[in-house]
Amino acid sequence: MRIWIANHYAAPPHLGGITRHYELAREWAAEEQAEVTLWLSSFNHTRRRMIGGAERGSVDTPGLRLRWLWSFPHTRNDFRRVLNMVSFSCLFFLAGCFHRRPDLLLASSPHLLTPLAGWLLSKVKRCPFVLEVRDLWPDTLIQMKGLKSPPVIKALTRLESFLYRRADKIIVLTEYQRKFISSKGIAPHKISLIPNGIMPGSWHPRESGKRSYRRRMGVESYRFVALYAGAHGPANALEHVVRAAAHLPDRCAIVLIGDGPEKDRLRQLKNELGLHHVHLLDPVPKEEIYHYIDAADCGIISLADHEIFRGARPNKLFDYLYVGKPVITTVDGEVRWIVEENGVGLFSGAENPRGLAEAIRKLTTLTREERDRIAERGQRYIERFGNRRKLAGELLRELETLLTPGAKQMEEINRSG
């Protein structure tokens, strides 16, 4: 089977960023003997710079190819980021026209231009089109007030509906997304839930390394460290995480690892409030972030208090549980349910610095035995619901149904029924 995957923000693990598609592609190539081409941007969104040939590394998995496409560089969320999206999508379509036909094509959001290019290519190549929905655009942009132009909102809403209707299969990452898309009149059988997860064996604990990574974070060994790893954008509501430090004793520290348009403002806020126990670090590769998590005492999940985020399952949830750390979530809804139902952490309240500080203080009182039990429960959850090797196999079985004889006719029957 020949599969194309297109994700503007995909990245190999050594670069950091969205590794889901690289890991799925590698698994299909290595274990399922598929020929997989991953289309990704040479402008790394996490690092906000171009990735040169040497930095891209080499692919040692037969059957897996990476197609790096140029896209317009940007440092802020202004018109240059729009040009970045447009340039990648146009080049994906143009380059794809000159490559051998795939058996199916999977294109991923969040922005809708890559899936649009993917649908057009699927028509040119006469193959099934699979839409993966990572974020609900344009609804997320509207709720975050990042999109206010009525004509643009109308155009993106129509494009969203068009892609939902035209896709042969829709892959979602959360139950909320599945219900949201079904509410728009899309047949439930067409939507499959394949959540984020962890590739087993991608990290092994090194007890001797904890002290070293504490030093890299700039914290002393006696401090209780609450760590946030991820994007620093308006959607992440990290101002409230930084402000929580004002309500914590000196023996606690908050470490934020990552980058984004809010980082400078967070650094300024830290200095204004004199929060010496807040540490803002640069992004690190995916394979290294686990060592930072292991050196911390708990992980923080933070998103803005909007309805659209109550259905989120951020990948950092799986990262924290995989390493065996308790989780504090500021996000009500699906993440809170997973954390509380599985006994792996606390809900601190949304956009509530005092509540977050109180949750951190509660975790400082856990005994060694209680922390070990949380780690065991978290790892059981990963094995049952977040094992990316199992999820890759499940997704491939879903995709294979699109290639069976009569699949298109059955889709038409289901649609008319």
UniProtKB/TrEMBL annotation:
The keyword Plastid does not apply. The keyword Transferase applies. Residues 16-197 form the Glycosyltransferase subfamily 4-like N-terminal domain. It comes from Kroppenstedtia eburnea. This is Glycosyltransferase involved in cell wall bisynthesis. Keywords: Transferase. Residues 217-379 form the Glycosyl transferase family domain. GO terms for molecular function: glycosyltransferase activity. Gene3D superfamilies: Glycogen Phosphorylase B. Pfam families: Glyco_trans_4_4, Glycos_transf_1. InterPro entries: Glyco_trans_1, Glyco_trans_4-like_N. It comes from the Bacteria.
